[in-house]
Amino acid sequence: MDAVATPDISLFADFRLDRRGGALYRRDEQGVFTLLAIGRRALDILGLLIERPGDLVSRGEIIEAVWHGRAVEDSNLNVQIAALRRILDRDREQGSCIQTVSGRGYRFVTPVARCQDDAHTASHAIALPDRRAPRLSIVVLPFANLSDDRQQEYFADAVTDSLTTDLSRIQGSSVISCTTAFTYKGRGVGVRQTGAELGVRYVLEGSVQRAGTQVRINTQLIDAETEAHLWAERFEHEIVDLFALQTEIVARIANALSVELVTAETARPTVDLDAVDYFLRGRAAFNKGPTRDNYVESIGLFERALILDPTSVSVQVSLANALISRVLEGMADSPAADVERIERLITHALTVSPRSAKAHFVKGQLLRHQHRPVEASAEYETVLALDPNSTSALINVGRCRIRFGSLDEAILPMERSIQLSPRDPFIGSRYEAIARVHLLQSRIDEAIRWLERARSASPLLPVVHLSLASAYGLKSETERAAAELAEARSLAGEGSYPSIARMRPGADYVPKIQALFEATYLAGLRQAGMPEE
After folding, report:
1. 202 and 221 in contact (C-beta within 8 Å)?
2. Nearest 5 degrees, angle CA 175-CA 215-CA 246?
3. Does residue 422 register a pLDDT over 70?
4. 196-223 as b/e, with b when 16 or more CB fall inside 10 Å?
5. How many CB atoms lie within 10 A of CB 448?
6. 19, 298, 414, 516: which could form a disulfide with 398 (CB 3.0–4.6 Å)?
7. Do 493 and 333 form a contact (C-beta atoms < 8 A)?
8. Which residues of 312-323 are buried (b: 16+ CB within 10 A; e: fewer)?
9. Mean per-residue pLDDT for 317-332?
10. Residue 238 carries which DSSP code?
11. Neighbouring-strand partners of residue 229
C-alpha cells in the first residue's frame, strides 16, 4: 500500500487509527475492523508517535502535546505507554511497537501507512460492516466561554479537557479525544452532523460564564441521532480556588453522566439483546437504588450477560458488585453463597485486569464485610489513586475510619462523596453513614436530621430504619422507635436484627468505638424493644 500523507487514517500491523474520529480499531480473523476501548490520553500519545514513525519523540514533547504543558508525574506517562503496549503488543511475537529510549523518550518502530479516506481504507482492509455508533459513545464539545473577559477561554477549555478525561473512566464508554473535539470549536456544526462525523451516539455541550467572583456552568447531554435533550444541569459557585472549582464541577458532571448515559442507552429499542445490552440493563437496574427487587433484577441481567460473554471482566465485576452490595445491605437470602461467588469473580477479575478501579472497590467491600478494615481501606485508597472521583470509595474510606476510631476524620470523605454526587442512587446509604457518626457522638438531633433525609431518599433500605429506631429510642420516643425497628425487620426479611447480642460490633472496631456503640446505638435499640439475646 502506498503511503499517502494525511493526518486522519493510519494503518499499521492489524490496527487502524482514525485520528479525526478519535478511535482505534483492530482487524479480526475475518478481516473486519472492530473498535477497541482505549483512553483518550493513550490515543493522543499514539497519534503523536505515529506522526513521526521511526523518530525519537522525547518525554517532554509528549507531555507538552498531550497534557498541554501541565505538570504531571513521570508515572502518568509510563501508565499510558503501558496501556498502549497491552493493546498493541498482544499476540505480537517480535518486540514492542513502541521502543523505549532510556532517559529520553519513545520511538514507534512499526511501519505506518496512511490513507486518503475511509473508502481507500475499505478497499485494502475490509470496511466496517456496521456504521452504527458504539454504545455509550460520546464527544465533549469545547465549552463556550460566555464571559466578557476573553482571557477566561482557558478555563472553558480546561473544563472540556478534564471532563473528557473523567468520562473515559466510565465503564464501557467510548470517548472522542479532546484533540479531535477541539477541531469543532467555533464551527457551528449541528449536533446530528457532529454525531455522524465522529460516530458517536451522544454529544455533551456546555458553556462557562464568569462574572466577578461567580462562575456559572451550563451543561446538556444530547442524543446525536434525534437531537433530543436527555439531561441538563446548571452549576453556580463562588470562585475561591479556580482549579479546585474546576475539579469539583467536572467530577459532579462525570458522576451524573455515569448514570444518565446508561439510562439513555437502555431506553433505546432493541430487538435481539446481546451481552452488552444485558450488561447495560443490569447497570440501569442497579442504578435504581438499593432495594431487594432491584438487586434481584440487576443480578439476573448480569447473569444473562455472563452466559453470553463469560470472559467479560466488566460483567464479572458488576455482578460481584451487585452481590456484595446485597450482602452488605442485609438483603441476601444466602449471604455465604453470595460471598463465595464474589471471591471467585473478583479474584479472576483482578488477575486479568489488575488496574481495574471497580474490581479493587469490590474487593474492598468484600474485605469490609469480612471484618478486615485495614485491608479494605487499602483497597479503597487504591481505587482513589486510579479514580480520584470515586464517590463509592470515598464513602467507604469514611466507614473504615469509624472502625479505626477516627470519627471526626470519617465525616470528611463522606461529605465529599455526597458533594460530588448529590443525586446518586445510593445517596440514602451515604446519609445514613454520616448519621451513624453523629449518633455515636451523641448528637442525636443531628443524626435524626440525616436519617430522615436518608429515609426520604431510600425508603426501602433496612439499615436506615434500624438507625432511626436507635435514634428515636435514645430520645425516649419509644413508639416511633418500635415502629422503625419493625419496618427494618420487615424490609430485611425474616430473622433479621434479632437481638442486641447479634448487633454488637466485632473486633474489627477499636475498643473506643465498641464502647460508644454500647452507650448509644445499642442503648437506643434496647429502648426500641430489641431483646438482649
Report:
1. yes
2. 40
3. yes
4. ebbbbbbbbbbbbbbeeeebebbbbbbb
5. 20
6. 414
7. yes
8. bbbbbbbbbbbb
9. 95
10. E
11. 222
Q: What is the CA 77 to chain-centroid distance, rounded?
A: 22
β-strands 56-58, 105-108 pairing: antiparallel
Dump the DSSP string for 171-236. Answer: TT-EE--HHHHGGGTTT---HHHHHHHHT-SEEEEEEEEEETTEEEEEEEEEETTT--EEEEEEEE
Rounded to whole angstroms, how far apart are CA atoms 494 and 220? 45
DSSP code at position 150: G
55-to-44, 371, 527 alpha-carbon distances in Å: 17, 54, 76
Helix (H) or strand (E) holding 77: helix 74-88
Single-letter amino acid code for the residue at 388: P
Please name the helix (run of DSSP H) or strand (run of DSSP E) that holds residue 237, with its range, or none. Answer: strand 229-238
Nearest to 363 by CA among 377, 205, 261: 377
Q: What 3-state class would DSSP assign to 520?
A: coil
Cα separation of 7 and 13, whole Å? 18
Q: What is each CA distance from 292 to 114, 345, 352, 426, in whole angstroms?
A: 54, 21, 31, 14
**Mean of the pLDDT values across residues 353-370?**
95
DSSP bridge partners of 214: 211, 238
Say which DSSP state 518 is in.
Answer: H
Give the number of other Cβ atoms within 10 Å of residue 114's Cβ.
Answer: 22
Please tell me the distance from the alpha carbon of residue 76 to that of residue 353, in angstroms, as a whole number. 18
What single letter denotes the amino acid at residue 273?
A: L
Average pLDDT of 253-270?
A: 86
The three three-digit cell numbers of residue 98, written as one number: 513502541
Q: What is the mean pLDDT of residues 261-277?
A: 83
Query: How far, in whole angstroms, is CA 107 from its chain's centroid?
Result: 33
- Predicted confidence at residue 119, as pLDDT, reads 41
CB 13 within 8 A of CB 113: no
Cell of 192: 446530528
**Which is more confidently placed, 50 or 121?**
50
Q: Which residues pair with 218 in a beta bridge?
A: 207, 234
Distance of CA 4 to the CA centre of its chain: 40
Q: What is the pLDDT of residue 92?
A: 74
Do residues 488 and 462 touch, judged by C-beta distance below 8 A? yes
User: Which distant-in-sequence residues (6+ apart) come within 8 Å of 80 by Cβ?
Assistant: 39, 41, 42, 45, 66
- Beta-ladder partners of 222: 203, 229
Give the 3-state secondary structure of residue 291: coil
Q: Of 152, 496, 163, which is closest to residue 330 (Cα–Cα)? A: 496
Percent of the chain with pLDDT over 70: 91
Q: Which of 202, 317, 176 is nearest to 267 (CA)?
A: 202
Give me 466's grid cell: 434500624
